[in-house]
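Practice problem 4.
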């Protein structure tokens, strides 16, 4: 080989090898594409890049584990992978894979938490949608130490699990779900003036949770709130059926009986001359606003008209007539049959007879 040819070989051969190597890398990163079936790839909280890279390589979702590692390191994203479930589709390049797994745009499930549901009902909704286990949710929602860390001045999260439509990943840890809901509560209520009432902020939420359960007619909320404010000022018992039910909720079969009204619990406002120990549901913003801005009137009583609305009365005699009219009608229609109980506060309720 001549000296000239040797020089050409020594110069051109490495250059050619370099070009070919570069072309292969370019192909592997930008051209090569996953050709498997559409599938879900899961990154669990705490997964290391090594674990993620190994599973991607095992599933043939990347061209090469070694090359993907160098590519990710070059882009300074070794610690940028976000936990979640990701939809991997045929045709994805390694660039697409990196972008998806570091975007946080994982598969989520939308779940709606209606106003007025309590923590036990919310737990069932979440479990039925595959978000988190009901048992785990209830455990943390009643964990006082955890609740205190969230800044809730109560022994459980009840009242602060804001009703809204959420997007959660499947199998989201219960503490994260609760924290998300509480954070939204704080955000939605940060503009409210809780100093407008003599009640503390927590007491406002307690009363709002009762208002939420007492009426299905949104326009009645300020009137209902006004009744309870009037009764509190007169030191009358609130005597709200939903508070009685909440106090026995975990053992409640759906039938409210006389013995339940006589059972003293920290929530039964037929037995305690004040607000219950905590909220009995998770109120929406309008119920909270109703408690902060109650309708000004002299009503002390209300009775259902059996259509979701109520008749309001200022005196016991007026209330008695309203009860006789509307509850007798209800009995005749066989919606339910009951007996009127009265006590020292001259308030009454319809108790189921079985």
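Answer key:
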């Amino acid at each position: 080989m001549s000296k000239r040819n040797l020089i050409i070989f020594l110069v051109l051969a490495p250059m050619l090898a370099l070009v070919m190597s570069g072309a292969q890398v370019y192909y592997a990163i930008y051209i090569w594409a996953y050709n498997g079936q559409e599938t879900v790839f899961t990154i669990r909280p705490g997964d290391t890049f090594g674990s993620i890279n190994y599973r991607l390589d095992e599933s043939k979702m990347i061209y090469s584990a070694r090359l993907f590692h160098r590519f990710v390191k070059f882009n300074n994203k070794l610690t940028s992978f976000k936990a979640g479930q990701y939809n991997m589709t045929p045709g994805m390049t390694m660039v697409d894979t990196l972008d998806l797994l570091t975007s946080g745009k994982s598969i989520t499930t939308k779940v709606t938490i209606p106003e007025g549901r309590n923590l036990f009902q919310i737990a069932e909704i979440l479990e039925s949608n595959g978000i988190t286990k009901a048992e785990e949710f209830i455990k943390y929602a009643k964990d006082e130490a955890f609740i205190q860390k969230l800044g809730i001045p109560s022994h459980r999260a009840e009242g602060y699990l804001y009703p809204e439509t959420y997007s959660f990943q499947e199998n989201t840890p219960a503490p994260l779900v609760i924290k998300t809901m509480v954070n939204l509560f704080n955000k939605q209520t940060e503009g409210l003036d809780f100093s407008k009432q003599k009640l503390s902020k927590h007491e406002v939420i307690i009363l709002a949770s009762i208002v939420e359960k007492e009426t299905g007619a949104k326009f009645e909320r300020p009137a209902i709130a006004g009744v309870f404010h009037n009764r509190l000022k007169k030191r009358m018992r609130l005597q709200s059926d939903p508070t009685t039910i909440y106090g026995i909720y975990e053992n409640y079969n759906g039938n409210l009986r006389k013995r339940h009204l006589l059972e003293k619990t920290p929530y039964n406002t037929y037995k305690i001359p004040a607000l219950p120990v905590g909220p009995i549901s998770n109120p929406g913003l309008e119920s909270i606003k109703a408690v902060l801005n109650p309708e000004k009137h002299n009503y002390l009583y209300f009775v259902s008209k059996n259509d979701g609305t109520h008749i309001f009365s200022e005196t016991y005699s007026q209330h008695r007539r309203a009860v006789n009219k509307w509850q007798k009608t209800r009995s005749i229609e066989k919606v339910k049959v009951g007996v009127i109980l009265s006590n020292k506060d001259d308030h009454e309720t319809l108790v189921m007879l079985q």
